[in-house]
Amino acid sequence: MTGPARSGPALGHVLGTAVVCLALLAAGSWLQGWLPDDDADPAAEPHVRAGGVGDALDLRTATVTVDEVRGTRRVEQYGTELVSPGLWVVVGYTVVPTEENATVTFAELEDGRGRTWGLVGRNANSCAESPPGVPVRCTVLMEVPADALPTLRLRLARLSRETRFDAVAEVDLGLTRDDAEGFATAPTYSVPAPELGDPPEEDS
Question: What is the fold, at CATH topology level, of the domain defined by 46-196?
Answer without folding.
Answer: Immunoglobulin-like (2.60.40)
